[in-house]
From TrEMBL:
<protein>
    <recommendedName>
        <fullName>Mannose-6-phosphate isomerase</fullName>
        <ecNumber>5.3.1.8</ecNumber>
    </recommendedName>
</protein>
<dbReference type="InterPro" id="IPR014628">
    <property type="entry name" value="Man6P_isomerase_Firm_short"/>
</dbReference>
<dbReference type="InterPro" id="IPR001250">
    <property type="entry name" value="Man6P_Isoase-1"/>
</dbReference>
<dbReference type="InterPro" id="IPR014710">
    <property type="entry name" value="RmlC-like_jellyroll"/>
</dbReference>
<dbReference type="Pfam" id="PF21621">
    <property type="entry name" value="MPI_cupin_dom"/>
</dbReference>
<feature type="binding site">
    <location>
        <position position="97"/>
    </location>
    <ligand>
        <name>Zn(2+)</name>
    </ligand>
</feature>
<feature type="active site">
    <location>
        <position position="193"/>
    </location>
</feature>
<keyword id="KW-0862">Zinc</keyword>
<feature type="domain" description="Mannose-6-phosphate isomerase cupin">
    <location>
        <begin position="239"/>
        <end position="316"/>
    </location>
</feature>
<keyword id="KW-0413">Isomerase</keyword>
<keyword id="KW-0479">Metal-binding</keyword>
<dbReference type="GO" id="GO:0005975">
    <property type="term" value="P:carbohydrate metabolic process"/>
</dbReference>
<dbReference type="InterPro" id="IPR011051">
    <property type="entry name" value="RmlC_Cupin_sf"/>
</dbReference>
<dbReference type="InterPro" id="IPR049071">
    <property type="entry name" value="MPI_cupin_dom"/>
</dbReference>
<dbReference type="InterPro" id="IPR051804">
    <property type="entry name" value="Carb_Metab_Reg_Kinase/Isom"/>
</dbReference>
<dbReference type="GO" id="GO:0008270">
    <property type="term" value="F:zinc ion binding"/>
</dbReference>
<dbReference type="Pfam" id="PF20511">
    <property type="entry name" value="PMI_typeI_cat"/>
</dbReference>
Length: 316
């Protein structure tokens, strides 16, 4: 099959969500507190469904399970990646994710750890996020958490549109108010909450914290990752390699005309975050617009893109 798999997003209401997913991408969202668009997902907690072609109406996990040839027989029991767009209308909880070993021991055999990365699509002037901490030992980390010394513990970073952050498992982090992000991550929904600003939901309840697990899995001391963005000018596109890791590689394509490209992985995930373009695959032409998400399978060896668009591309 040489056609792309276009996917129907799933939306998640969150206490910190807003309406940017509708305003920016024209999605039909469930409420004014919609925080997450699960754009490409085969996770049990949110299944994308194919919108077109031979597999129309079938969930991505079923396609993955029943048609491994579409994904180059990539060796993983479950689809390995999850692409989201997050609307942080308010601060997210301060949290940390486990690695694969800890997740499989404590959360079940089919749950990955969660290394992720963020591309800042947009943010308010002066916006920031929490990335890392200042504790030097695990005892100091535990003391500062138990004592509520959040201003001393948490490391804040100012951000701008176009910034990129690689967030390995074990990194204390939080998106903050006024931030719109495309997130590429391992296919995991395991989060250990460290601090939630003592806020309550509509029923007056605070959200659960997971302090023992968080202290256990947090990297101490925090270390920043050195990212070296590789840039390549091709006919029709300027391509930036944002990260290449053991879990995923992520690229930004800025299209400025027509270009031809080759499938250089088992399969590739595409998210159009601005503009529009035409994509030609196997002699068929498809219009792609801001807010579209699709997979190019391993059976697509070559494709062309023509337009004025920004696309985030990833593969395992």
């Amino acid at each position: 099959m040489t056609e792309p798999l276009f996917l129907q997003p799933i939306f998640k209401e969150r206490i910190w969500g807003g309406t940017k997913l509708k305003e920016e991408f024209h999605y039909e969202i469930p409420s004014s507190q919609t925080g997450e668009c699960w754009a490409i997902s085969a996770h049990k907690n949110g299944q994308s469904v194919v919108e077109n072609g031979l597999y129309e109406g079938i969930s991505l996990d079923k396609v993955w399970e029943e048609h491994p040839e579409l994904f180059g027989h990539y060796q993983s029991e479950v689809f390995p990646l999850l692409t989201k767009i997050l609307d942080a209308n308010r601060d997210l909880s301060v949290q940390v994710h486990p690695d694969d070993t800890y997740a499989q021991e404590h959360e079940g055999d089919h749950e990955f750890g969660k290394t992720e990365c963020w591309y800042i699509i947009d943010c308010e002037p002066g916006a920031e996020l929490i990335f890392g901490h200042h504790a030097q030992t695990r005892d100091e980390l535990e003391h500062m958490i138990q004592s509520g010394k959040w201003d001393d513990l948490l490391r804040k970073v100012h951000i701008n549109p176009g910034d990129f952050f690689y967030v390995p498992s074990g990194t204390i982090h939080a998106l903050c108010e006024g931030t719109l992000v495309l997130e590429t991550q391992q296919s995991s929904d395991t989060t250990y909450r460290v601090y939630d600003y003592d806020r309550v939901d509509a029923e007056g309840n605070t959200r659960d914290l997971h302090l023992d697990q968080a202290i256990e899995v947090t990297n101490v001391p925090h270390e920043d990752n050195e990212l070296s963005f590789m840039e390549e000018q091709r006919t029709g596109a300027f391509i930036t390699t944002l990260v290449e890791s053991e879990f995923f590689s992520v690229f930004k394509y800025v299209l400025d005309g027509a270009g031809s490209f080759k499938q250089d992985s088992y399969f590739q995930l595409f998210s159009v975050i601005d503009g529009e373009a035409t994509m030609t695959v196997g002699g068929e032409t498809y219009k792609v617009h801001k807010g579209d998400h699709f997979i190019l399978t391993s059976q697509i060896e070559e494709f062309t893109l023509d337009g004025d668009a920004t696309i985030i591309v990833s593969h395992p």
